[in-house]
Amino acid sequence: MKYAKQGNQDLNVIGPEDSHIFLDDEKIGESFIIKDVGFPKKDVVEKKTVRIEKTGYAPQVIELKKGTNKWIWGNFLFLLGAPIGFGIDYLSGVFESFTPLNIRADLIRDEKYKVDLNSPTQKKYKAVLDESSKIPVVITYSNLSAVNIEKLDEKGNVIPNANDEYTSIFQNQSNVKTLSPGTYRIKGIYQTSRRSGNTITTYTAKKAGEMILTIPGGGAGAFCGLIDKEKKATSFRFIHINEPSAKSLEGFLPRAQLSNRIAGSCDGIFGLQDLLTQ
Q: Is the pTM for the entire model greater than 0.85?
């Protein structure tokens, strides 16, 4: 997966907790995924199939159909550049696109259905997770301020200097860090801003929050800040996507970008009330 390439098409799938997500019968993630699916013009197969499964629910199947990329019409907003832009888009394979690219699963109860955890694609996916279990994960956060992340040992004591700020060759990103797998305590205050016309309103929780959780290895993740409106208290949710390309510079830069993109999706991944009642 190359998240840094220009012209990628991201498939976003939001499934229920503990759900399994497949693309063309290959497992690509659980509960939530961001996946580059390419363009139909570049692929032999002109359609793709997404399937979401969860034990106790009937599987949901969605077909990604081929259609015209809506951004192609942007070339015609500037008439002088239209022929050139249109030609570049056509030759580069971005003239056509898959749709839909944003899917929120709505599974129907089926007590008899059980996910096959021993299928070849399940075993392949687990092998990827096992392989990256000792690789650091790139993380960031959204809707949070005054964030403090500490790694804990088996007795619950803080391990000093256990996480590093991520520094790219282009810029410093103090909110992006690399964490080795293990148990962590995160503290922070929910804070977010909303624009209405020319007015920007900032919402801040009265009480800070604290959470202890186990962080898996590999890939990218984000801490999503939430607020309990009645208690005015901060709550957290950690979202993790395993990224197979996790070696050296080639894998690290895309993972840092992916963590920021996960953080940007925090508000849309889980409904606030749904999350706080889980």
A: no
